[in-house]
Amino acid sequence: MQIGSAFFSTSVQAQGNQPVTTSEIGIGIGGANYKGEISPNYRFLNNQPALTVFYRRDMSNAITLRGGLLGSHRIFDDKSFSDEAFDERPLHAYRQAELKFSLLELSGVVEYNFLDYYDRSQSPRLSPYLFVGIAGMLYNKKLYMAGNVEREFDTDITVAIPVGVGLKYALSTHWNLGLEFGARKTFTDKLDHLQAPDFPENIANPHDNDWYFYNGISISYTFYRYNCPPIYKKRPGLLD
Fold first, then answer.
1. Which residues of 147-181 are buried (b: 16+ CB within 10 A; e: fewer)?
2. Alpha-carbon span 30 to 85, nearest angstrom
3. Of 42, 55, 159, 228, which has the highest C-beta tally within 10 A?
4. What residues have CB less than 8 Å from 222, skipping those under 6 apart?
């Protein structure tokens, strides 16, 4: 699962009916994908290796905030997105485009848990969830057409809206397993270099923006903090 952030605290009920706050750190592996001119549909075989690290904090039984860093890079030089998968389409057969693509994403999202995942009396402890947020992406791309370099490597940044679904499962009191699939709606048509007015409409579609995706599995470690009730503190904090 891709995961999240926030430095606020609320409490849930734990052992002995004591207020407790939970947070997680974790790491995940999976695949990053792209949808645009070269790959107009999501295609699982286009996935290239990706790695994510994250921090998550519970805000209530249903809401968690998370922040994550996601990276994906071509391991092999020939690992690329290509028109070849869509050769039955006249435009793709004519264009013969190939894209080499790497990305680094920083994101913050809100997760909505359908079950009380932090209730340790549950057996098993699991919950499906939805998420939505905002992300910034640094990306690098190189475009080939008909076997020739059409655009050299270029680095750019963009903003995206991550949305998706996932599943959390508690392996033990502290260890968790996660699965997640997420789509990122971008506000640019430049992920693949194929955009108007650089290319005519018979080469590039000027009417929609590019998307990218992440699907993967993660493992995380939960930290529990038992909070002293404010009445027993000499100086209660702002968030107490």
1. eeebeeeeeeebebebebebebebeeeeebbbbbe
2. 22
3. 55
4. 22, 23, 24, 173, 174, 175, 176
In our burial notation (b when 16+ CB lie closer than 10 A, e otherwise), range 25-53 reads ebebebbbbbbbbbbeeeeeebbbbbebb
Residue whose tokens read 């599995």: 217
What is the DSSP code (8-state) at residue 47?
Answer: -
Token readout for 181 is 């699939």
The CA distance from 36 to 213, in Å, is: 12
In degrees rounded to 5, what are phi and psi of residue 83?
A: -70, -15
| Contacting residues for 223 by C-beta, under 8 A, at least 6 apart | 22, 23, 24, 25, 174
Measured distance CA(181)–CA(214) in Å, rounded: 6
The model's pLDDT over 113-160, given as tens digits with 9 standing for 90+, comes to 999 887 777 788 899 999 999 999 999 998 888 888 888 888 999 999
Q: pLDDT by residue (tens digit) across 181-240?
A: 999 999 999 898 888 778 877 788 788 899 999 999 999 999 988 777 666 666 655 555
pTM value?
0.80
